Amino acid sequence: MKARASAHANIALVKYWGKRDRRLNIPAVGSISVTLKDLFTHTEVEFHSGLKADTLVLDHQPAAGEQLDRVSRFLDIFRKEAGIDTCARVKSENNFPTGAGLASSASAFAALALAADAALGLNYSPVQLSIVARRGSGSAARSIFSGFVEMKSGVRDDGSDAFALQLFPARHWPLEILVCITSEARKTTGSTRGMTLTAETSPYYGSWLDTQSQDLEALCRALEKKDFEALGETMERNCLKMHGLALSAEPGLLYWNPATLALIHRVRQLRRDGVPAYFTIDAGPQVKIFCPPGWTWRVENEIKDIPGVYRVMLTVVGGNVSKTAIQDS
Ligand code: DP6
């Protein structure tokens, strides 16, 4: 009834924004991401008959309210499957800022799915784990896999065909990624609320849905051919399209700060100077810069002194999950 697991954060190259079913958390569009070797969540879960309620300790702090409710609702899926009503103790730690647009919900719910599965001995397959992780957070479905990962939105009402799969292992293309932290504050509008508001109010939401498949196809082709320019052009276009869409919600969602914008301009200037580098940004102010192997040192030198950039982490594509059931001694 006790287990430990870890899962890695991922960054979307073609982004998920919008749901076709809110209750089952089924995305309205497919997405493609890379799982990151050096950003991860460790989680321990223990189902214990002596507990009167679920408890959550997040990064060494007791958590309550919506965070705990979200975890409890997620654990209910496992309790139902295992035919139990036992409460659980959850401890989770990230080695990167939580809730600031660094996909912490992705690694968190992937790790929690793995740990709950191992604790209850359910032995889910990777696809089943991806489906259940999606219920916690759409992007978590992708963190079940390492390397280059595609999430399908599927067509079935029950979401049984809305899961992720690995497109290529990490060794296919050892891209390097600089994660530029411009704020450690929690974002004011989380992804769930942000994408729901966008779908309900943006006049451009229909165009977003209509053009996503072109970006997914272009990105798959770029990955297959290891065409860095095509990859970069597609991921930047899709990122700016998502942020343009979010800006057009009512009220408009602006996830950037001045350092985010300064980084965008610097990356584009570097490209004009012949440096292969492209950016992407999720629902937060952090900028992730992708380079072919061997180029990040040059980019890092050019960006680390930009005001407001206070930490730059270098990582690569990777990120295998792990899980271990713990026997009581
Ligand atoms: C901008 O997976 O956090 O990072 O399913 O509501 O939990 P929920 O949303 P979440 O959204 C991620 C949005 C994104 C793009 C992406 O990762 O594809």
Summarize this entry quickly.
It is built from nine helices and 14 strands.
Overview of this protein structure:
With 329 residues, the protein is of the alpha+beta class. Helices cover 38% and strands 25% of the residues. The chain has helices at residues 65-82, 104-120, 126-136, 140-143, 191-201, 205-225, 228-247, 258-272, 296-303; strands at residues 2-14, 19-21, 26-27, 31-47, 55-58, 61-63, 88-94, 148-151, 164-168, 176-181, 278-280, 287-291, 311-316, 322-325. Strands 1, 4, 5, 6, 7, 8, 9 and 14 form an eight-stranded mixed sheet that branches. A four-stranded antiparallel sheet has the order 11-12-10-13. The protein is globular, with a radius of gyration of 19 Å. Bound molecules: ligand DP6. Ligand DP6 is lined by residues 12, 15-17, 25, 31, 103, 105, 137-139, 191-192, 282-283.
The number of helical segments is 9
**Bound molecule kinds, no repeats:** ligand DP6
Rough outline: globular
Pairing-aware structural class of the strands and helices? alpha+beta
- Unreliable stretches: none
Q: Topology of this structure?
A:
Blueprint: E1 2-14, E2 19-21, E3 26-27, E4 31-47, E5 55-58, E6 61-63, H1 65-82, E7 88-94, H2 104-120, H3 126-136, H4 140-143, E8 148-151, E9 164-168, E10 176-181, H5 191-201, H6 205-225, H7 228-247, H8 258-272, E11 278-280, E12 287-291, H9 296-303, E13 311-316, E14 322-325
Parallel strand pairs: 5-7
Antiparallel strand pairs: 1-4, 1-14, 2-3, 4-7, 4-8, 5-6, 8-9, 10-12, 10-13, 11-12
Helix pairs in contact: 1-2, 2-3, 6-7
The chain binds ligand DP6.
